[in-house]
Design goal:
heterodimer, A: mainly alpha, MetI-like fold, 13 helices, 81% helix, 0% strand, globular, B: mainly alpha
Amino acid sequence: MFAAALIVLVPISALFLRSAGLTWDQFIAAAFSPRVMASYRLSFGGALIAAVFNVIAGLIVAWVLVRYDFPFRKLVDALVDLPFALPTAVAGVALTALYAPKGVLGKALLSIGIKAAFTPLGVVLAMIFIGLPFVVRTVQPVLQDLEDEHEEAAVSLGADRWQVFTYVILPSILPALVTGFALAFARALGEYGSVIFIAGNMPGVSEIAPLMIVTKLEQYDYAGASAIATVMLVAAFAMLLVINSAQKWHQTRLAGR
Amino acid sequence: MSTRLNPLLESRAVRIGLTLVAAIILLLFLFAPLVVVFGEALSKGLGAYLDALTEPDTLSSIWLTLVVAAICVPVNLVFGICAAWCVAKFDFRGKSLLTTIIDLPFSVSPVIAGLIYVLVFGLQGWLGPWLRDHGIHIIFALPGIVLATLFITFPFVARELIPLMEEQGTEAEEAAVSLGANGWQVFRRVTLPNVKWGLLYGVLLCNARAMGEFGAVSVVSGHIRGRTTTMPLQVEILYNEYNMVAAFAVASLLAMLALVTLAVKTFFEWRYAKELAA
């Protein structure tokens, strides 16, 4: 997989660079100008915060769905996939309407002094929305397949519930959590539709990296757009690597049990 | 007291607490946006909602979206079945390359997917001058939108089928061959029925994404009103014009598509579980 990713992604980057015909200095100037650097910081930072939040939130949601019984459990379970099925532009305008200063949640947040929409916080909120199902759906099946015996053994040796969780359950689901984290992070990094509406797109403050590509394209600066896309592709490639090694780790864990 | 303490269960307080936290997360992040779409769409009444939907530009965006999906879903159905069949049932050199290519659209930003096509077919792109001389329009026209959508929705069918086909192995196929079936018969009578539900689910996801794709289509479409705007792009245009009722009316159609997709998906899973149990 690793070699294959190299074979596929490097030519694409090469294609970008060649078609754009940039020298190295021009590339650096286009891909790392202050405004573009700010967009990387927001995209990578926001995706990181959203993915960390989603690991915790996704684990809680998966846990509750697998282990507890409550009314409408099946319905809730089905709706977790909503961000997969809902077109991103729809999610974008809906989140904006919700978190804008006049929106239901935006008004509530504003009353405690937090401005959500049209700030980096809004970007993170949209990234959480699209990333959440990735963590839930990778952790859920692993949690479902865990056998009671290990937990029973731990209890019989005197472990309390928290110890059982940290020493028995958490190690088994850790690879799934890492996979879910990487998937959510990668998706948030490249996401466009659900983020650009709520972001407000203020230069240097709330512009995401994919938006910078679109902005350059609209100015017919194909070279600049390609340079930024190349940086994003390398990042996507690194994520692919993490996902694959996490999955391998996951499989050896399963095989070793 | 009949409640026996189960050592494998958290205390009642923790259980209720965690359930509440999960409920709040899902309410805030998943359900609230969904409710807002329909709330905003109907905020000026049903009449305004229907007027917004029958506006000519909106109607033509609905039509364009249906056309794009009608081309992309069958093409990717065939592609997906072929790719999954190759990956799951045969061993060959470059197999891991093929699986990586299948996965690529998932890990590449949709904006970059659109950009690739602009770089190849756009006026400044590799084939741009030749296409212009021959009067062929790809970028800022229907073919570009179809190409970008094809790229984005390529993995859905294959991704659903590969694990299913791998799980089922090749024994049933070998048995069919030994009974004298030819390749097509084996595929139609053995392989395909075994993966029926996965296939339908893949098609469903592919369709939902084909109709809802925004980033990639936005880059190649050129936003020519009434001509190259799909429904998600129409949502953006109306929203940027502060025409909220109309924007959310179109959005509500797409949200309904998402809900139907989830409902049918749940139905498929239920049928599949029933078949496995039988």
